[in-house]
């Protein structure tokens, strides 16, 4: 039994549009985790200042999640950019990836509210871990199915280099889980190492 | 009286952009059905764990709806891909389709909260049933109006094959309604058969 | 003093992307006007059925608003399609138009909750009236500034025909206001005449 | 150590799609700052009228923020339009810019609810100040890295002219902060000077 190929019907640009849409929305609704205090809670300017200042940790969580989603988006672009066509397995892996992107506003909000509990931290890191693992699996899948890759993008040294990058991105949330055992509250700062990737991985 | 044709003004790519936008948003705001517990409800880590664990069924509903919307999106792409132009009837059928996509976050949320009640399950399946029926009607409409189809996409065996696929997709929510009479809570698992479509429909 | 022309920097396709995004989001978040009842309100299936059934009017308002936004989107496409370039006046008129699109989820929600009050109905119709008036002004602006129009789209009989269509769309919410004086609750049904436009306006 | 260039993988059009998505969502969810009164608060039409009328200042804040975001979007388009390729620094500056766009629905909502407190006003102006400063830095970065600019867009007089525009946009929120010391409530009206930019900056 031959599975029909969706390659001709599912054009890459539609997949890109859906993907960019989901990422844009997930990044933007992160802000909904910051609640404006109701007028019954706040009766003077000093109370307002106090209320907003107490949201510092929620703001940090939101800030970090924004950039984590941003880095995942960049890695998604890289995987789509080399595509020649898609097949059902690749397509559904992509959907699974998008699904876990949509969960980030929830785990971020939980983290912002309950960052002192290891559970909230670990849940957040697990979310990212799953996302990054799917990304690695997708990359490996493309390496194993070179007919899906554009001819001018099949450069083995490049593919191998980026596999290292994907492995690096899987390690970061694992590191986060390890750190959260010792100091839950600040464990999401580990994602800052993403900006220093070039010091860890060389071509 | 001749209806003016919108074919020249309504470019397919705009319709695609609106469609992808609506799908991306509907898929992403599903997450809003998961509520972060307020600090007054949760005072210890074990209470947090318990609260999150109790959301298991809501999470499952959200997960399944995400993939149901995903499969509907793929079927939408297929119908748009073969388009040469659009006319008002086709356009409004498409809008009707999008309308019912936007209702899914509501029926999903209801399902997640009240999954033990047959009513919530049936409402969800009805929502999908309407969506899939509109999709089938749209496909049949295209088959009856071949001037709307791109010349290289008019392949009758292909059109007939996919009509079977559309009929299959109408049957799944009907199956869901039948199952929900016996066991409401798990009736939305029927949508998993979508992933095994190839075993049911051959070219 | 010559105003610099933004024509070369503001590409039409970006304006289209922003426009389609705003419309897609406004259409999709209409669903947030339907609230899932909290578990403390509903303790049996019959209560759930009753609760959902009582949302009938909210659902109708949401349904009608969806299609009103849809029809406004189609009219937006028509105006953008003929564009050769944009200038600041045209661009800000477009932004003003988008602003009032974003208000529709609010006026719709108000209508769904307070449809028995003439005030809620009139506010909704006023919202649409402003939108349709801006659309008409934009069309007239294009007719007066033919350098903004693509050469192959400058067909005066066509431009005049669609001006009639735009005037027709301004009349519908005025009709809605008139009807709401007599029977507030059902005044938003007047928008159904949009589907029968061809019987009123001939080329 | 040479940083790998993302120029070939991160296509500009994907960056545009994400950007337009984030702006469209931020502009549209501003409306969520207007709350529909619950039925327990409102029992007669006159109470509804009163409730809605009391939202006048919230509506004004929402209206002004919409156009401020709109003007930032236009300035974003201008920066992207001249791009030949992107590099990681430029890309992350862009992400930082998008991050602060997503915060505007929060600061707007705060402003709408607590406009009489200088703190809420200053926070809003600070938000815009940061955004406009990042925009200026990005523009200067492009001027310093002309390889990122399309050849036909490298026109020094044009680049210098728009730097003045970017500086102008940094001054406006500073003005807002100054005004808010004297009269907090109306300080966001300073953004109206954006529409009169041409009177301040000449080529």
UniProtKB/TrEMBL annotation, chains A, B, C, D:
InterPro entries (alphabetical): TMEM175-like
Topological category with respect to the lipid bilayer: Multi-pass membrane protein
UniProt entry tagged with the keyword Transmembrane: yes
Subcellular location: Membrane
GO annotation, cellular component aspect: membrane
Keyword tags: Ion channel, Ion transport, Membrane, Potassium, Potassium channel, Potassium transport, Transmembrane, Transmembrane helix, Transport
Catalyzed reactions: K(+)(in) = K(+)(out)
Membrane-spanning intervals of the chain: 21-39, 59-79, 91-110, 122-139, 160-179
GO molecular function: potassium channel activity; proton channel activity
Protein name per the record: Putative integral membrane protein
Annotated organism of origin: Mesotoga prima MesG1.Ag.4.2
């Amino acid at each position: 039994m031959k599975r029909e190929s969706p390659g001709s019907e599912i054009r890459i640009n539609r997949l890109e549009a859906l993907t960019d849409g989901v990422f844009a929305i997930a990044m933007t609704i992160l802000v909904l985790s910051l609640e404006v205090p109701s007028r019954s809670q706040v009766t003077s300017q000093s109370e307002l200042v106090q209320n907003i200042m107490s949201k510092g940790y929620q703001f940090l969580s939101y800030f970090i999640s924004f950039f984590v989603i941003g880095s995942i988006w960049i890695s998604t672009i890289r995987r789509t950019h080399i595509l020649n066509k898609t097949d059902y397995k690749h397509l559904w892996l992509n959907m699974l990836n998008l699904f876990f992107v949509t969960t980030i506003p929830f785990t971020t909000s939980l983290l912002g509210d309950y960052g002192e509990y290891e559970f909230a931290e670990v849940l957040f890191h697990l979310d990212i871990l799953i996302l990054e693992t799917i990304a690695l699996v997708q990359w490996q899948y493309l390496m194993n199915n070179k007919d899906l890759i554009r001819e001018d993008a099949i450069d083995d040294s490049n593919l191998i280099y980026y596999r290292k990058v994907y492995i690096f991105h899987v390690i970061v949330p694992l590191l986060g889980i390890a750190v959260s055992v010792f100091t839950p509250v600040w464990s999401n700062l580990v994602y800052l190492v993403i900006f220093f990737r070039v010091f860890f991985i060389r071509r």
